[in-house]
Amino acid sequence: MDKIVRAAIYTRISNEEKARSESNSLEAQREICEHYIEVQQEKGWKFSSLYEDPGYSGKDMNRPAMQRLIADARAGKIDAIVTYKLDRLSRSLKDTYTFLELLKAQNVAFASATQSIDTSNSTGLLMVNILASFAQFEREIGVERTAARMASRAEKGRWNGGWYPMGYDYDKEKKMLVVSSGQSQFIRRIFQMTCEGFKPAEIKNKLNSQGFRTSARMVVRRNGQAKQVGQQKFDEDHVVNIVRNPVYKGFVKHKDKIYPGQHKAIVDEVLWAKANAALNSKSPRILKHKDEHVHLLKGLLHCGECGYGMTPYPAGKKDKDGNPYLYYSCIAIHPEGKDSKCKVRALSAREIENAIKDALRKIGDNKQLLEKMIQESNRECRETIQPLLKKQKDLRETIDELTQQIRRLVDIFKQKDLVSADLKAEYKKLLEDREKAQTALEKLQIDIDRRQQKTFDAEIVRKSLLYFDKTVEALSLEDQKELMQLLIKELSVYPYDPNQDRKPGEGAFATKIKTRWYKVKLALYEVPTDALNLEGASSENNQIGCGTRIRT
Question: What's the CA gap between 520 and 534, in Å, rounded?
Answer without folding.
Answer: 10
